[in-house]
Amino acid sequence: MTYVKATSVLPEELVREIQKYIQGETIYIPKPDKSYKKWGTLSGERQRIDDRNYSIKQAYKSGTAMAQLAEEFFLSIETIKKIIYTK
Q1: Residue 29 in domain
Q2: What is the pLDDT of residues 23-40, one digit of tens each?
Q3: pTM check: above 0.85
């Protein structure tokens, strides 16, 4: 997070309005909800995990044992169960 001086980016009248509520303090202005991205979408990690989980579910449906899946994907059996039984 970077800090920006309000007077360098906001109109003077808006700065005066904000000063009615707060002066000389740091204030955080969040992004609009629609501009937030889910975890991992920019890096592609979310898609990788979704693909891995799909592979685990398909392998289980094909008869691969949970213990074998846990070993193959380096996950605990409990994690494999969560992946398999989650819609």
Answers
A1: no
A2: 999 898 888 888 878 889
A3: no
Backbone angles phi, psi at 32, to 5 degrees: -65, 150
Q: What total number of domains does the chain contain?
A: 1
37 DSSP assignment: -
Sequence-distant (≥ 6) Cβ neighbours of residue 48 within 8 angstroms = 40
pLDDT of residue 3: 86
Amino acid at 28: Y
Judge whether 19 lies within some domain: no
- Residues 53, 59 contacting (CB under 8 angstroms): no
Q: Nearest-CA neighbor of 59 among 47, 71, 45?
A: 71
Q: Is residue 84 part of a domain?
A: yes
